[in-house]
């Protein structure tokens, strides 16, 4: 659909007389009314698109999109704000992936809560950076309060103790907002590495234990942290893809015998493909027994912290040393909104780096840069703050339950469908399956997986993901839209079925020795003398 942004009504900007730049370009008091008009026009355009979009993607090919992008002259003359936004809407918004559409079911992307979108408008305009208190004031205090709230939901102790001299004893939980789960996992493993280094462990002997289902950022973090190429040791799993406590125990013993040191065990509360939660209590028992750092990657499963019915699935998470949470996955927040939470405040100390011009060591103000890998950092916590105040934690939790309930219903549907084969079950909201009717060769079913996904993606009508489980490719639905219905997902499955049928029928036609009569396709022209 074309942009609904109104036509340009203001003149193309030029530098006022006596000035070297356009003084109407920046957001300030003198341009406040223009700001309001601009944001309103963009909001109206997006609202119109939301009500008219019928599929998650336009279906434009990559070559078509590349042509549109290349056609824009970024060194050309200025066109004015409205014209530039109209152009962006027709380029970006028209061809964006719409995660609110119920037929979007590919990756860990969620529709966003309205209060959070309103908060985005606020924080973008004010443009706070929460690296130091003198740049952020109350924003720093609000973020710290949300870290404390999240720690409390995890089950970490949140109150520090006061010593006899009146000074705070550095105990209790802490944390920092991050750009996403990858950064949170990296920082957690950095902290674990630094703890081991303080204990005299050499880099070349450090080992991290995780399963094959753990997020790729675990292995990537080990690389960036300078650990050996074989530092990440794979722990065996049960039939459902959860970490096996028995396998973990044996691996801990085996590594100790080699003289190497396990600096961290990474348990996953919500694996990307299966949506499985590792058994946290027995894993914590083993980590406590050997004194190693337990990190729980709950980027996907953190929504269970507010679930009215499924919170027990995270039992044991309170015994972790650090936890990754991604609010932009399971709390319906716009990207980015993530955090790393640690059980003991002093564990964040190795991140601190003091600069005289920014955060001198003698400064008593709460400077968040002291515990962040980032310096300049958006006030992303505001979105979660407003969402919790608007909807309540139970309201967010009810939406988490809704997507988990939907996944359970889809699993039941597929279990009764002779064309599809379920590939395991889930603790959260993923659905793994294959188009594999009776009589279809398994290798041909393998080949159909990427073909079906590509056909559906190119059509723009629905988006599903593909992955590999136990050596075999399969299709994956990631259900994170609490407003999607079982009928919506049945529609997605019918598109999968139709695409598979069409691909198989096309192959059968290509294998036919005698070409079919041209009459089967009315657009085929006939040669001279041919008749019907």
Fold and architecture overview:
The protein has 532 residues and is an alpha/beta fold. The chain is 40% helix and 13% strand. The protein has helices at 32-52, 62-70, 81-95, 114-126, 133-136, 138-154, 181-198, 216-224, 245-258, 280-290, 327-330, 381-391, 393-415, 442-459, 486-510; strands at 104-105, 161-162, 168-169, 174-178, 206-211, 232-235, 261-268, 293-298, 322-326, 338-342, 420-422, 430-435, 463-469, 472-478. It is globular. Strands 4-10-9-8-7-5-6 form a seven-stranded mixed sheet, sandwiched between helices. It has a five-stranded mixed sheet with strand order 1-13-14-12-11. Strands 2-3 form a two-stranded antiparallel ribbon. It has 15 helices and 14 strands.
Explain the layout of strands and helices.
Blueprint: H1 32-52, H2 62-70, H3 81-95, E1 104-105, H4 114-126, H5 133-136, H6 138-154, E2 161-162, E3 168-169, E4 174-178, H7 181-198, E5 206-211, H8 216-224, E6 232-235, H9 245-258, E7 261-268, H10 280-290, E8 293-298, E9 322-326, H11 327-330, E10 338-342, H12 381-391, H13 393-415, E11 420-422, E12 430-435, H14 442-459, E13 463-469, E14 472-478, H15 486-510
Helix pairs in contact: 1-3, 4-12, 6-12, 7-8, 9-10, 12-13, 14-15
How many alpha or pi helices? Answer: 15
**Mean pLDDT score, rounded?**
92
Helix/strand-derived category reads alpha/beta
* Count of strand segments: 14
Query: How much beta, percentage-wise?
Result: 5-15%
Helix-strand string: HHHEHHHEEEHEHEHEHEEHEHHEEHEEH
Q: Which value, in Å, is the CA radius of gyration? A: 27 Å
Helix content: 25-40%
- Seen as an oligomer or otherwise, the chain set is single chain
**Based on CA inertia axes, which overall geometry fits?**
globular
Low-confidence stretches: 517-532
Strand order of the largest sheet: 4-10-9-8-7-5-6
Largest sheet composition: 7 strands, mixed
Give the distance, in angstroms, between the N- and C-terminal Cα atoms. Answer: 42 Å
């Amino acid at each position: 659909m074309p942009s609904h942004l109104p036509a340009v009504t203001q003149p193309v900007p030029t530098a006022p007389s006596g000035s070297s730049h356009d003084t109407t370009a920046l957001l300030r008091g003198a341009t406040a009314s223009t700001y309001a008009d601009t944001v309103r026009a963009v909001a109206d355009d997006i609202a119109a698109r939301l009500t008219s979009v019928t599929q998650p993607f336009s279906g434009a090919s990559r070559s078509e999109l590349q042509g549109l992008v290349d056609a824009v002259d970024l060194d050309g003359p200025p066109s004015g704000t409205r014209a530039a936004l109209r152009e962006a809407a027709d380029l970006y918004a028209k061809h964006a992936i719409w995660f609110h559409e119920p037929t979007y079911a590919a990756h860990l992307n969620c529709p966003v809560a309205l209060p959070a979108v309103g908060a985005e408008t606020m924080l973008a305009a004010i443009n706070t950076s929460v690296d130091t208190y003198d740049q952020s004031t109350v924003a720093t205090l609000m973020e710290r309060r949300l870290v404390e709230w999240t720690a409390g939901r995890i089950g970490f102790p949140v109150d520090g103790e006061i010593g006899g001299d009146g000074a705070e004893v550095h105990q209790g939980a802490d944390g920092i907002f991050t750009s996403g789960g990858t950064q949170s996992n990296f920082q957690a493993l950095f902290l674990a590495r630094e703890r081991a280094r303080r204990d005299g462990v050499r880099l070349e002997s450090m080992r991290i234990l995780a399963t094959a289902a753990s997020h790729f950022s675990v292995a990537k973090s080990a690389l960036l942290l300078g650990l050996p190429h074989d530092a990440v040791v794979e722990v065996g799993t049960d039939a459902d893809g959860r970490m096996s406590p028995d396998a973990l125990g044996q691996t801990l013993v085996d590594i100790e015998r080699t003289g190497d040191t396990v600096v961290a065990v990474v348990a996953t509360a919500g694996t990307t493909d299966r949506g499985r939660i590792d058994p946290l209590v027995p894993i914590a028992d083993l980590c406590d027994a050997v004194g190693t750092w337990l990190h729980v990657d709950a980027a996907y499963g953190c929504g269970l912290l507010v679930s009215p019915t499924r919170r027990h699935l995270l039992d044991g998470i309170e015994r972790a040393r650090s936890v990754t949470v991604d609010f932009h996955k399971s709390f319906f927040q716009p990207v980015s909104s993530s955090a790393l939470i640690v059980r003991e405040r002093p564990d964040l100390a190795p991140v601190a780096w003091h600069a005289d011009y920014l955060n001198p060591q003698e400064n008593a103000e709460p400077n968040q840069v002291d515990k962040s890998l980032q310096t300049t950092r958006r006030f992303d916590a505001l979105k979660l703050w407003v969402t919790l105040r608007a909807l309540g934690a139970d309201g967010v939790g009810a939406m988490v339950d809704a997507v988990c309930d939907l996944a359970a219903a889809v699993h039941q549907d597929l279990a009764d469908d002779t064309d599809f084969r379920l590939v395991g079950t889930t603790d959260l909201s993923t659905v793994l399956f294959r188009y594999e009717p009776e009589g279809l060769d398994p290798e041909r079913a393998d080949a159909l997986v990427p073909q079906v996904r590509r056909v559906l993606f190119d059509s723009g009508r629905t988006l599903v993901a593909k992955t590999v489980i136990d050596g075999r490719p399969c299709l994956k639905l990631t259900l994170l839209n609490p407003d999607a219905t079982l009928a919506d997902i049945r529609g997605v499955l019918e598109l999968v079925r139709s695409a598979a049928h069409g691909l198989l029928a096309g192959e059968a036609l290509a294998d036919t020795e005698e070409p079919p009569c041209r009459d089967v396709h009315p657009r085929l022209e006939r040669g001279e003398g041919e008749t019907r």
